[in-house]
Description:
Layout: H1 3-9, E1 33-35, E2 41-43, E3 47-65, E4 68-82, E5 87-93, H2 105-120, H3 128-138, H4 143-161, H5 165-168, E6 176-178, E7 181-183, H6 188-200, E8 206-210, H7 216-230, E9 235-239, H8 246-258, E10 263-265, H9 273-282, E11 287-289, H10 296-305, E12 310-313, H11 315-318, H12 321-334, E13 337-340, H13 347-357, E14 385-387, E15 390-392, H14 405-411, H15 413-426
Bound molecules: [(2S)-5-oxo-2,5-dihydrofuran-2-yl]acetic acid (MUC) and magnesium ion (MG).
[(2S)-5-oxo-2,5-dihydrofuran-2-yl]acetic acid binds next to loops.
Amino acid sequence: MNAFKLLNTFKVSNQTNSILAAxxxxxxxxxxNFKNLTGIDMRATAIESIETIIVDLPTIRPHKLAMHTMxxxxxxxxxxxxADGVEGxxxxxxxxxxxxxxxxxxxxxxxxxxxxAPLLIGQDSxxxxxxxxxxxxxxxxxxxxxxxxxxxxxxxxxxxxxxxxSELLGGRVRDALSVAWTLASGDTAKDIAEAEKMxxxxxxRIFKLKIxxxxxxxxxxxxxxxxxxxxDRASVRVDVNQAWDEAVxxxxxxxxxxxxxxxxxxxxxxxxRAGMVRLNTVSPAPIMADESIECVExxxxxxxxxxxxxxxxxxxxxxxxxxxLRTAAIAEAAGIGLYGGTMLEGGIGTLAxxxxxxxxxxxxxxxxxxxxxxxxxxxxSEPLVxxxxxxxxxxxxxLGLSLDEERxxxxxxxxxxxxxxxxxxxx
Length: 427
Ligand code: MUC
Ligand code: MG
């Protein structure tokens, strides 16, 4: 049988795109094998379809990073539908189109639709190892897209087995995660007021300041003023997003360390690894690698060279909740501290990260899983629970969330473009 025919055996002629429509009896021994409509041996947990949806959500205020100012956030939602009726949901999200990494929301959607889905349709959704290995063999990089798919497969398997994703990952050792907040309005007084509000609300007592876009001395004064205002009531850290060169960073790291700043994230380009090693040797405040880690192998090389004292763990930059735990294992073995990072995902990506982070033995620098709180809207039926400075991670099966279909329909980008094209047509 040629490849085209084989691919078509996975499709049925009606609109359900179901290879197993006649057999859909959810949860009845989903691991049993049986023959599909064309006689091919299949599992009840086979992947039937993969849908990718781009969603644009407004932020509560402009969020200023060295390379981009966010006015909204774009999520790619992934729905993996399986033959037993189980659906897994995942999210692939980045910051500022292509400003942060090698993948944009548009490339993530196109690549999943065109390259990932054909490899996965008909495969066993219950075997996450095998599914991800199949992708790994044919698709280089694209860790953001892989992360959303891996999250969705874990969500599906958790729902099927009645287990939270954290338990599929070996079991949680904590139920809640302390969460930092990023001060990034660009205005010192506004940032101090925002930090005070967060302390009052008992929502955050760790603050990350986004610097690097402005003149360095002004940035340093801004950070020092905020630390002075907050004193010992908060941990203050900075993220430079690669904006400095090594000479500037050498001076700035000394000043920041001397003024009580606890952590300095990605001060220089990810390409200057030797410079990161030199900075990490002399800086009084620990250096954290973020953009330097684009895959698990990067983490190994950074650890080997001593280029950072702390790693920002991000599911998107490693290829998923399981993949990020491999980076964490490298860090643990090398004595490198761990920080649970974010790409400012919405609720789905945030929970996918959280389920991985609750399984870690140590998480000395806590997390920054505040993405949903930066958005004025979400597309989940129930918001995530932030209380007493922590994100509380659900015990319900899968990622522990459900989509609000009406809100998803409202915020999906293709709906907006349909409306726009109708309006243009009428005019
Ligand atoms: C980054 O560079 O770490 C995380 C928090 C935030 O405000 O931006 C992100 C990305
Ligand atoms: Mg960062």
